[in-house]
Amino acid sequence: MFFYRFPFIYITILLILGVEFQNNFDFEPNSLLVALIVTLIVVLVLEKIKRAKNFQLVGMLLVLTITASFLMSLKQKAIYKNEALNLVRTVQLKVDDIAGKEKLWRKALCSVNFLIEEDKVQNYDEKVLIYFNSEKIIKGDVLIVHTQFSEISNKGNPGEFDAVNYWKSQGIQSMGFVSSDDYELIDHEIPNYFTAALLSLQENFKETLKQHLEGENLAIAQALVLGDKNLLSSEVKSSFSKAGAMHVLAVSGLHVGIVLFLLMYIFSLFPRIISKRGALITALLVIWIYAGVTGFSPSVLRATIMFSILTFGGIIGRKTQALNLLFFSAFLMIVWNPLVIYNIGFQLSYLAMIGIFTLYKPISLLFHFKNKWLRKIWEGTAVGIAAQCLTFPLTLYYFHQFPNYFALTNIGMMVFAGIVLSLGLLLFALNKIWFVGKIVGVLLGLCLSAMLFFIQFIEKLPFSVAKGFVIQAELVLIVYFAILIFYLFQKKKSIYYLVGISTIALFSWIQFNRYQNLEVNELVVFNSKEMVITVKNGNKMICYHDPNERSFKNAQFLVGNYEKIKPAEVEFRSFELGKTFIQLESNEVILTTKKEGVAMNVNGELFIIRKDYKWQELSDEKVIDMPYIHENPKHIQLKNGAFVFKLN
What we know:
Number of strands: 20
Strand content: 15-25%
């Protein structure tokens, strides 16, 4: 019965299994096509045999799984048919997307069309990541580029973002840096009318915001309303992350829902001008345009597809199961692009919605308030708790921290996000009316300032964020499997005892690992072009960096990632020529700084960190080479990953 009511739950799960199967075993498309045809023939034969109905069902499940693997293999072949570009190359490429002009190096996604060599031009087809040091380049430009391409790799620093898997999920293997002297513009491809209209609309909206806002308010408005996070500073991102409100800065289903609600409310004020059906169709058209302006992210697509089907069902008078509809939207997205299942936004968005659809009602019924406003507050809190119940394992896995006041943040953000988005859309609509536009702009600025104040207040509360969570992917899968078992068998009383015991055991294990990370004592030399060394002793950490502003910012970034998995109170110091003594309980570290590098005496054990080839005074056995020093097999190579030394 459950299968017939919610068939797309099973279909989507089988598709995901098929994609993951292909991602791990990498079969050829032809082999999978043969397997698919054979399985279909077997299913058709079994259909004629009355006693083989159960085998026929298994066959159909195999068909779905093999189909997903086949689709994934086609995607892999299209993306990874070439080896990663890994040399100095001259190529012709088209700029598919590029960040704004606010940063010195602008990140761009490009399609390489030709490899240009001395005696020939070779057809080529690969997506690459390019950083341009130029303000002139725009989306659609066709360029001749000369650069050193390299395969995207992780630096091996503790707590760092997994760039390899992130870009691999988007079909990108290679990257390069291009200065203003290393490219030549040869053409510009004009996008189709629809794309050009969306880009023009997006630029007009950005200019409207710039007319009325500046600084952090402009950055937050551009992220929250338009989904463009290029202006956000690392400090603002950190504040929102620690408060548990980072999802508000990424346009998602929440934003689409608010836009749809506002439109339907406005249309309801004019029943004589526009009918309910006309209002639904118009609202649907507007949210698709809004999804296009904000970049068609997975969470926005999910919400837009869902609302579209719900709206269509309302027009034709048919009811649709929300959970089945949710998985149907996932089914469509996976069939279109199997790699989307590795997108973090896709994973968190769908898990949050599954949590809301399945857990919101039982959680909301735990308390009942007669007061209307208290009831509204509790209902909003219940939504946040339901979403967190299913997203917290992935949150710990990817981000290694958990916002302890997420429920309080969620209440505030539901109010602020609704007001900011409403005022932003109102500003776009009324900006041409000078006086009205000014008033709306001022109100929007005040609301953004209040929202940032609220976020920073939450961030500064004691124990606002718990850090130090390092859990394995296998443990995450076990947690979700346990949640699934509980959902399927929740009517059996025995399952509650089993879940209770398992939950206590799981949290005990996670907290034990976290405690070990909190108490760890170690010295780390980071893989960085700027020398950065940290000495951690329990909850105290000292970070040494080169004495310049760029090195300090680099150290903050590296230690910020490291401190998520090994939390401590951080003190930043710059290197000084001569000896520096560090005494931390039972550990003694002496740093002797020279122009050529740093000698480290760690509890009597001596290491040399070479910044220059000139330093040749000591034994090669304990030499650590900076990542730009030519590889010596006898030395410790930072380019292979950070050097970590355990202390007493």
